[in-house]
């Protein structure tokens, strides 16, 4: 009974530590430290390396294992497989040249990283630090997706060409390391491990679950049961996790491989974003913090320092991590500056979750000692502390120039031409396309616009003319079927935003399901008339040039985390709404501004432009 009470007390201590960690980070503005790294540091303080307040028992062991499984699931869920399509529009670099193909460059960099990691691992084996080349190669080559993605988001790099390269290298490294880790367990697992071919059963189960999920995904009864107290979609996700984790352990692989595969399967099914947010909330709000705190609790730093061999290994391993990532990053020097190259190499050095996985498995299989496991995890923690700080120092917002969005209009008529005329040329570069056989709308003078004539509205022909190398495409010709055909083809070619005119409900639904934004003359007129009756002042805001709604992106780090009540701007501007990821926020005094926020404001144009300059184009 006393043992159970001590175990429960330790759980309370760990949960309180996990709860206070992000509050402390926020209070002292320690933005450079990832939360997961801070949780490990807190674990060090309350664990064996510090006050030794925690006794590992059944509660903590179970919840920590579940946290690790859920972390691997969310790592698989984070992978965006559209990045492998290679159909993104070509970006023009500041120097005027064409940006490289992200998939080709990222694949080349990862292969270089893998070869270098193998060579460096042999050096560690020859020096007598470790006996297994395979395990050390996995540890050196892996990259932390959980650190890279937030860092790229903070720097507004995620959508840039170099940001996509960094992201793709990380995704390939994550996928490859997980697969190689499964192969590693099968080869070195000893008598208890099944033959490697049994892994095919696991992957076969993953494929079968994907097709079953695809079949039932859009059924009306599933959508109905996903609401209220049933939440069938969330139940399905946990069922997938447990099935694949169970199969993974049965065939002799580690449970984390099944969890990671479950995340990949769910990601391929393109889940509802609301459900993803619920899963993130559950994982990062409860289970995962317990796991990371317990990682810190289990490391005994004083004992590590008693072993001269381990003490020498740690700095040498950190140097190896830097070499394995910085040298392959030199491939980017052909297109980017030295600062950007070194920034890329530094952020790729960050590693955490998969190193912990590999080290834990290596210790469990008797291939490395407990001290060696602690040393590997400690070095990975240091890499996550150092890499984002160096990256932010090297990558400067001040070097960015104002981005003018490229917009293509297919069809020049009384609907598109007035819109083109009113778009701010400082923010939008417009391109109009019209067929030679169609007459331009007589109501608008052709001399006012530069219109590109095409033989016909054929998607292949438009692609040859480079029409799809834009940020936004608007398909607004008289034939809604042709609009749909062009819009869907544009999405396939990687155009980020596509807007199409469609009047029929069936076509409207099909386009929306494929990520196309839809507008309808009939529905727009009906909505406007209803708004004029119910809320005429709202319509006035939208149509009166003196009270337009404007959208501004918050990029200035000086205001990141600042409460609106403390915001120093005193111009004639009112914040109406804040869009953050998929969340819509009504701003008030206690609302914090965050990097990447989309602010919807209203006010006089001169003050709006001043605010735009302060928030978007900071030095």
Automatic annotation (TrEMBL):
Signal peptide: none annotated. The keyword Ligase does not apply. The chain crosses the membrane at residues 6-25, 32-51, 63-81, 102-127, 133-153, 165-189, 195-216, 236-269, 281-299, 311-331, 343-362, 374-391. Residues 536-617 form the RCK C-terminal domain. Gene3D superfamilies: 1.20.1530.20, NAD(P)-binding Rossmann-like Domain, Regulator of K+ conductance, C-terminal domain. It is found in: Membrane. Belongs to the monovalent cation:proton antiporter 2 (CPA2) transporter (TC 2.A.37) family. This is Monovalent cation:proton antiporter family protein. It comes from Pontibacillus chungwhensis.
């Amino acid at each position: 009974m006393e043992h159970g009470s001590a175990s429960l007390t330790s759980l309370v201590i760990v949960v309180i530590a996990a709860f206070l960690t992000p509050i402390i980070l926020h209070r002292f503005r320690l933005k450079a430290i990832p939360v997961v790294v801070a949780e490990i540091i807190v674990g060090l303080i309350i664990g064996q390396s510090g006050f030794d307040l925690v006794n590992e028992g059944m509660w903590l062991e179970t919840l920590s294992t579940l946290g690790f499984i859920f972390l691997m699931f969310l790592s698989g869920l984070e992978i965006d497989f559209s990045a492998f399509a290679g159909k993104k529009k070509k970006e023009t670099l500041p120097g005027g040249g064409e940006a490289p193909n992200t998939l080709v460059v990222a694949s080349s960099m990862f292969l270089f990283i893998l070869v270098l990691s193998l060579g460096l691992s042999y050096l560690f084996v020859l020096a007598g630090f470790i006996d297994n080349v395979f395990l050390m190669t996995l540890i050196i080559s892996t990259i932390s997706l959980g650190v890279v993605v937030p860092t790229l988001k903070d720097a507004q790099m995620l959508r840039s060409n170099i940001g996509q390269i960094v992201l793709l290298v990380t995704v390939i490294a994550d996928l490859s390391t997980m697969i190689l880790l499964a192969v590693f367990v099968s080869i070195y697992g000893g008598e208890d491990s099944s033959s490697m071919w049994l892994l095919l059963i696991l992957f076969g189960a993953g494929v079968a679950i994907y097709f079953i999920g695809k079949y039932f995904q859009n059924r009306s009864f599933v959508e109905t049961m996903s609401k209220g107290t049933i939440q069938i979609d969330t139940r399905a996700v946990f069922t997938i996790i447990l099935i694949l984790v169970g199969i993974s352990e049965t065939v002799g692989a580690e449970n984390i491989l099944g969890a990671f595969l479950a995340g990949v399967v769910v990601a391929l099914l393109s889940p509802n974003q609301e459900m993803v947010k619920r899963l993130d909330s559950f994982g990062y709000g409860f289970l995962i913090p317990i796991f990371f705190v317990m990682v810190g609790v289990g490391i005994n730093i004083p004992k590590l320092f008693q072993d001269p061999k381990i003490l020498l290994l740690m700095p040498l391993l950190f140097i190896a991590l830097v070499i394995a990532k910085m040298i392959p990053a030199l491939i980017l020097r052909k297109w980017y500056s030295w600062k950007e190259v070194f920034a890329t190499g530094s952020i790729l050095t960050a590693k955490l979750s998969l190193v912990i996985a590999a080290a834990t498995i290596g210790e469990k299989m008797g291939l490395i000692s407990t001290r060696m496991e602690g040393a590997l995890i400690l070095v990975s923690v240091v890499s996550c502390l150092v890499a984002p700080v160096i990256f932010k120092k090297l990558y400067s917002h001040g070097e960015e120039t104002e981005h003018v969005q490229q917009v293509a209009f297919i069809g020049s008529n009384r609907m598109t031409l007035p819109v083109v005329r009113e778009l701010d040329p400082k923010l939008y570069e417009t391109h109009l396309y019209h067929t030679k056989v169609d007459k331009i709308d007589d109501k608008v003078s052709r001399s006012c616009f530069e219109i590109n004539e095409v033989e016909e509205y054929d998607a292949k022909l438009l692609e040859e003319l480079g029409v799809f190398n834009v940020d936004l495409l608007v398909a607004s010709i008289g034939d809604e079927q042709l609009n749909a055909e062009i819009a869907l083809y544009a999405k396939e070619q990687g155009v980020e935003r596509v807007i199409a005119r469609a009047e029929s409900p069936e076509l409207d639904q099909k386009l929306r399901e494929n990520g196309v934004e839809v507008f309808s003359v009939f529905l727009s007129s009906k909505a406007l008339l209803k708004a004029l009756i119910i809320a005429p002042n709202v319509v006035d805001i939208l149509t009166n040039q003196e009270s337009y709604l404007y959208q501004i992106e918050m990029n200035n780090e000086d205001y990141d985390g600042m409460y609106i009540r403390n915001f120093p701007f005193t111009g004639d501007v009112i914040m109406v709404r804040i869009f953050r990821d998929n969340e819509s926020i009504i701003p008030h005094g206690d609302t914090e501004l965050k990097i990447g926020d989309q602010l919807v404001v209203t006010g006089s144009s001169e003050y709006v432009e001043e605010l735009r300059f302060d928030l978007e184009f900071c030095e």
